[in-house]
Design brief:
mainly alpha; flat
Length: about 300
């Protein structure tokens, strides 16, 4: 058994968490009573810089889609595209705001709000399970040589498999419904995420390990205070990229036979030739995906600030 991985590459030193500037410390004077004008100005400047970046992202996002909407409207007005096949924003957005009518009949009837909640619930559960299991397996691979030799080839074999390929297997094993979608999401990220965990751990800079050992850090403390913090920025970025695979996987699963969720809502819209409903589903998928991705970027900035480059 090994307490730390072999290191083959080096990166820039990661500041220790204890050196992260705190808001309280940056505002306090020497006696800790009241913030000075200079420190308050610095704090406000830093907060404005963060806020300005967020506002800029939102503004450019809205501007880009506004321009697309204008071009779309022009194309429909001049009959360059068929308005019934691709309903323009002037028809789709009011339909979305009015609350799309339930789609389907009987037990297959599905509401817009229910579809959104079903998809978000599946992606959340499958994603959290996949990331958690990948971290556990990655740590075990780095610690135990026999486990590495046995499990790593399996992980490397699973990683290239397309998430869509797991859909028939999931339906055959757990049946149609939410568990099948969660399984597909889990399989979509477990392989690539595990490989990323192993790589990030093995790329822990050698100088970090040397300094920690010289200071008497060993065992679990070495992992919790040096190795995992060093790997955290890479792991969060990989989780962000894995989210896109998981998002597409759950939607493909819902379209291919799982009878609920946004993917299924789009299929019902297509079957009823309700293209407004199809467009509402597509728009919702895009905006939800964007919002979750931004949340993961924010998580990296806050939880692993030393490795954030955005």
């Amino acid at each position: 058994m090994r307490h730390s991985p072999d290191v083959d590459s080096h990166s820039q030193p990661v500041p220790a968490s204890a050196t992260e500037p705190s808001d309280a410390g940056s505002l306090a004077q020497g006696d800790g009573s009241r913030p000075s004008a200079h420190s308050l100005g610095t704090w406000l400047a830093l907060r404005w810089r963060d806020l300005r970046g967020t506002v800029s992202t939102v503004v450019w996002f809205l501007l880009a889609w506004f321009l697309i909407g204008v071009l779309w409207e022009v194309a429909v007005h001049f009959h360059w595209v068929h308005g019934r096949i691709l309903p323009p924003p002037s028809e789709t957005i009011p339909y979305l705001l009015s609350g799309p009518a339930p789609a389907g009949i009987g037990t297959q009837q599905l509401t817009y709000g229910g579809a959104v909640l079903d998809t978000l619930g599946r992606i959340a559960l499958g994603f959290v399970l996949g990331v958690t299991v990948a971290i556990v397996i990655g740590v075990m691979i780095s610690l135990v040589r026999p486990f590495r030799n046995l499990v790593l080839p399996i992980v490397q074999t699973i990683a290239p498999i397309s998430p869509v390929a797991w859909i028939p297997f999931a339906i055959a094993i757990v049946g149609i419904g939410g568990p099948a979608a969660i399984f597909v999401v889990f399989m979509a990220i477990i392989g690539s995420m595990t490989i990323s965990v192993v790589t990030a751990i093995e790329n822990t800079p050698q100088e970090y390990l040397m300094v920690a050992r010289n200071l008497g850090t060993r065992g679990v403390r070495l992992w919790t205070h040096v190795i995992l913090p060093s790997a955290a920025p890479t792991l969060i970025e990989t989780a962000r990229l894995s989210f896109f695979a998981a998002w597409m996987a759950v939607l493909a699963g819902e379209m291919a036979g799982i009878d609920s969720g946004l993917g299924y809502l789009i299929m019902l819209g297509q079957q009823m030739y309700n293209m407004k409903l199809v467009m509402v589903g597509i728009i919702t998928i895009g905006f939800l995906g964007f919002a979750i991705d931004r949340a993961l970027v924010l998580l990296k900035k806050k939880a692993a600030w030393w490795g954030s480059q955005q």
